[in-house]
Specification:
Strand 13 and strand 14 (168-172) form a beta hairpin. The chain contains five helices and 45 strands.
């Protein structure tokens, strides 16, 4: 442990000495100006100074101001969703400096992203490929949660893991949910126990964009970022609308209410958002005696504060409260049967608190302290099996962003604390209950090197010290070559690691329908990844734009932990794989915009996710070889009407049948979920929208004699609810209304 302390102390001393040196006051100036588009002032556009943390947003009149800028020459970047990003060079002198921008509508390939390198960068200039999705994208197929909305993203699939409680996770490139790190504003607050529910109930009114990185990112973010990461970026309160509201309902009786309101108190601007979802209809269209959709009563409240400081440095704090009461089971179940053995039901109460913040130190150097705290309490019954669990996670990270000639450096130290306790064998020892408590300090370094004007090399490494598994080292490399602005080549390679917690990740281990057998002390999973990406932009004289994004990836896993459901249908067996697992494939995204109002977003992924042990290769259960998606939008501005046609196509996947005598399909068929929507937008920013979901009325019960095995005796040993790969909801209509007050 001595060498680890030396590394951390040396690193902290390095930061301290440099930051103290940099506190010598220098001459500063102010930058102000206007941002326009072809129609006039452009409100709520983003502007920042490259290589620093200084930035702002334009107000309702398109005016912006950035104070306390050290004198010197900088590149200033202006961006806005759906517009081409503009970069200008300016020399900041003492006093006032002025600059104006006029943005033109273009592709989303030039928006600013942060997830790939932990700092703002134009997407096309990032060495790490980052996909970005805005609220406009998700409005094409409105859903009550981000979990469901991600079905429209190529290579990302929300997976339902239980046909009764509808618990789920997010698959990226075929890898299961625990391999994906979910963050809010860059803070890893959705993990472990909360992965199942963390993507539900985040108010849509607060979402600025969602960034997705596919492939390991452990060198920046640590454990759990093995398959990729999803970063939910919330709105800057200063740039948010005064009021926004979105209400819709479906023919199944689902009701979703979402709103946001902005205010000012003293030197702070606050944004309050809330999401409420309610569904209480017992529907059993497949006639198996169980609810097709879990009944839910869910509320989420999110409040974000931005504080204005004389130094113009960042200081923001946000908090969220989440509560959910959900149940599914036999149609005549009610709460009086909770935990009993007469009528089967799965009932989950979830209460969750989150606090996150970002504070930029009041010194000339760009040094940021970010932190998050979460408290998650789950009270569940799966039939007569009780699962009571508590998880508390504390995370803090100090980063120093330093630009030198041809080098863009990022230093960081991080600390993660996790407490986990439940009423299972996971937290028991010979002396009784023994909650799991871990502390993981880490240090990381990243250097983005401009080799030549068209070539960039990114080198990164991270060292984590896990009190259970010792030192974990995760390096990565990224290379970008852009021969011109219309062609970009990227190569990424790196390693990842993941510490597994079975009972927080595997729903089947909780239900009591199978005995859990842990065959050995489980070592962390490790991965080695390489990803090749090509981005192509094509512009035509008639205003048509085509953007192509092609990726190929290969990930090799050692020590993989894959649940064994097949050796004994009454057991789930866990051990480190005596062999290897792989995830490999190719994907294509296409963004096509025509001058006549027609826009097409489409893509497909072909993948192979499998493992090999003892010379035998097995495909991963519930993983498709092919997935495709599309979103077609046609707007008619003269009548303020637009139409959206969205859909997905999935190839066959291996299903968890219970032995050779199980009459259910061993593989799913090809299936497609398709939706259509019409939206009318009035002159006063009121939108009325409606349409039909699941036009083809596809459900997993089609072609199967039943979905739930042992349904005649839900308390018996053959009862199993994991045979599910899509929602049981069939065709249904929906109608909604949105209002925005700028």
């Amino acid at each position: 442990m001595k060498i680890h302390r030396i590394i951390l102390l040396t690193f902290l001393s390095y930061i301290s000495s440099n930051t103290l040196f940099s506190q010598e006051m220098s001459t500063v100036g102010m930058l102000e100006g206007n941002i326009y588009d072809k129609n006039g002032p452009l409100p709520f556009a983003n502007i920042f100074i490259e290589g620093t943390s200084l930035g702002s947003s334009s107000d309702e009149n398109g005016v912006f101001e950035i104070a306390n800028i050290p004198t010197g020459t900088y590149k200033v970047i202006a961006s806005f969703t759906g517009y081409n990003t503009i970069k200008k060079k300016i020399t900041i002198n003492k006093g006032e400096n002025k600059i104006n921008f006029t943005l033109t509508q273009g592709s989303p390939l030039d928006e600013v992203v942060i997830s790939g390198t932990l700092k703002p960068v134009i997407r096309s200039e990032s060495p790490v490929p980052v996909e970005i999705y805005t609220p406009t994208f998700f409005k094409k197929n409105p859903t009550p949660s981000i979990f469901e909305a991600l079905q429209n993203v190529n290579g990302v699939r929300p997976q339902i893991n239980c046909s009764i409680c509808n618990t789920g996770d997010i698959h990226i490139n075929g890898l299961e949910g625990p391999y994906t790190l979910v963050m809010i504003d860059g803070m890893p607050i959705v993990s472990g126990l909360s992965t199942v529910y963390g993507l539900s109930g985040i108010p849509n009114s607060l979402i600025n964009r969602i960034e997705i990185v596919k492939g390991p990112a452990s060198s920046l973010y640590g454990s759990e970022a093995v398959g990729g990461l999803i970063n939910i970026i919330t709105k800057n309160p200063e740039a948010a609308p005064e009021l926004s509201a979105d209400v819709f309902a479906t023919g199944w009786g689902e009701t979703s209410v979402d709103f946001g309101v902005k205010g000012s108190i003293g030197n702070a601007t606050t944004l309050l958002g809330a999401n409420y979802f309610y569904y209480d209809q017992i529907i059993d269209k497949n006639n198996d005696g169980f609810t097709d959709l879990t009944l839910q009563d869910r509320i989420s409240i999110f409040n974000k504060w931005n504080f204005k400081r004389k130094s113009n440095k960042v200081f923001s704090i946000a908090a969220r409260f989440y509560y959910e009461d959900r149940w599914g089971g036999e149609n005549d179940w009610d709460k009086t049967f909770r935990g009993g053995d007469q009528i089967y039901g799965e009932s989950i109460y979830t209460a969750r608190y989150e606090l996150l913040g970002n504070y930029e130190l009041p010194i000339e150097e760009s040094v940021n302290l970010s932190f998050s705290l979460t408290d998650h309490d789950q009270d569940s019954f799966y039939g007569i099996t009780s699962y009571q669990a508590q998880q508390r996670i504390g995370f803090s990270q100090l980063t120093w962003d330093k630009s030198l000639k041809n080098h863009d450096l990022l230093f960081g130290v991080a600390m993660r604390y996790q407490f986990y306790d439940d009423n299972t064998t996971a937290t028991e020892d010979e002396e009784g209950n023994n909650p799991e408590e871990t502390t993981i300090p880490g240090v990381f370094l990243q250097d983005e090197i401009t080799l030549f004007p068209k070539h960039k090399l990114l080198l990164g490494s991270r060292l984590d010290i896990d009190n259970r598994h010792g030192t974990i080292f995760t390096p990565r490399l990224a290379y970008k070559w852009s021969p011109n602005k219309k062609n970009i080549f990227r190569l990424n390679a790196g390693t990842g690691f993941r510490v597994v917690n079975l009972f927080t990740e595997d729903h089947a281990a909780l239900t009591g329908s199978r005995s859990v057998i842990i065959e050995e002390d489980l070592d962390p999973e490790e991965s080695y990844n390489v990803n090749v990406n090509y981005l192509k932009k094509i512009f035509f004289d008639n205003g048509t734009f085509i953007g192509l994004d092609v990726s190929a990836w290969y990930t090799h896993f050692t020590n993989a932990i894959i649940p064994d459901y097949e050796t004994n249908i009454e057991e789930i067996r866990y051990s480190n794989l005596d062999g290897y697992a792989i995830s490999k494939g190719i994907s294509l995204n296409a963004d096509i915009s025509f001058g006549n109002g027609l826009k097409i977003l489409t893509g497909f992924s072909v993948m192979d996710v499998s493992n090999k042990e003892g010379g035998v290769k097995n495909r991963q259960i519930l993983t498709e070889r092919f997935t495709g998606n599309w979103g077609i939008t046609y707007s008619i501005p003269s009548i303020r009407l637009s139409f959206d046609y969205t859909g997905n196509l999935y190839g066959p996947m291996r299903l968890p049948v219970q032995g050779p005598d199980d009459p259910r399909r061993e593989k799913s068929p090809w299936f497609s979920i398709q939706n259509i929507q019409a939206t009318y937008k009035s002159k006063n920013d009121l939108e009325i929208y409606g349409g039909v979901k699941n036009l083809l009325n596809w459900t997993p019960s089609q072609g199967n004699p039943f979905l739930i095995s042992g349904a005649d005796d839900p308390f018996g040993p053959d009862f199993d609810t994991t045979y599910i790969y899509a929602s049981n909801q069939g065709i249904r209509g929906f109608l909604g209304m949105r209002y925005t007050l700028l």
